Amino acid sequence: MARSTQAGMRVQRYHSALDIGNALTTRSRRQEPVSVHIRQSEADGACAMHCVAMALVILDLAKRSAILSMAHRKYGVAADLYEALGHSWHEGAYAQDVVDALEALELPITVRWADGFDRGVDAFAADSLKKAQLTMLAYESAKDRHRHFVLGVGCGGQMVGQKLAVDSLLVLDPSADALPFTCCNGMLSIDKPVAFEKRRTSVQWQYASAGQTEPVRLMSAISIVRHDGVLGRGGRYGRST
């Protein structure tokens, strides 16, 4: 049963192509459900490439089987992705590298992005995820300054009337294992909703994943939307109890 308070009802919104079950899958033109999460190894720094790969699988623009063997493919989207971002396998990639790679793929997608601390990245991320758009998020840890890309798939907050006051961003983290019966394996949260559209100063989020929590700031956000009408727009609401 959904929990209703004076502040409104708490909900989560996530991308409409995701199916939650024992494993997170996506609906596609293929007969069987396709697993979404793609695990990063302990030895590589290719979190950005893994996030792009997950996004392309969710948007039904690349086959998961092809993505998993991208280094050996000679043709197709998976081969093109490796060609564009393979150099980042050990060193990692910046937001500009990701945007350039997505544009080079020449896919039916619209790419929008925001970059830099204190430049409205939080507002862009919250707005994109409120619309249930897949949004890559790059954060920097306040503890040790390490940087990491995760794939935003939704958001959560209080539903007041027809408006969603966002206080959490739901993400798929390639460096952590997938979790059953949820659309995410990581979450960035704040104590209470912020008027993001009126704020330029970066928000400090608490990022929780794999049983650990740390304070982080968002560096970059890149939304990826399929625009050829194959996938419907918007997302779905799940009411938390």
Provide a descriptive summary of the structure in words:
- The chain is an alpha+beta fold and 241 residues long.
- The protein has a single domain (4-239), classed as Cysteine proteinases (Cathepsin B, Chain A, Alpha-Beta Complex).
- Helices cover 20% and strands 35% of the residues.
- The chain contains 5 helices and 13 strands.
- A 6-stranded antiparallel β-barrel has the order 7-8-9-10-11-12. The chain has a 3-stranded antiparallel β-sheet with strand order 3-4-5, with no helix packed on it.
- Strand 11 (205-209) and strand 12 (212-226) form a beta hairpin.
- Helix 3 (77-85) runs antiparallel to helix 4 (95-105).
- The model is unreliable at 1-6 (pLDDT under 50).
- CATH superfamily, please? Cysteine proteinases
Main CATH class: Alpha Beta
Tell me, briefly, the overall form.
globular
In total, how many domains does the architecture comprise?
1
Main structural class: alpha+beta
Helix % is 10-25%
Please report the number of helical segments: 5
* Rg, Å, rounded: 17 Å
Short account of what is shown:
The chain is α+β, with helices and mostly antiparallel strands and 241 residues long. The protein is built from five helices and 13 strands.
Descriptors:
241 residues, Cathepsin B, Chain A, six-stranded antiparallel beta barrel, three-stranded antiparallel β-sheet, 13 strands, 20% helix, disordered N terminus
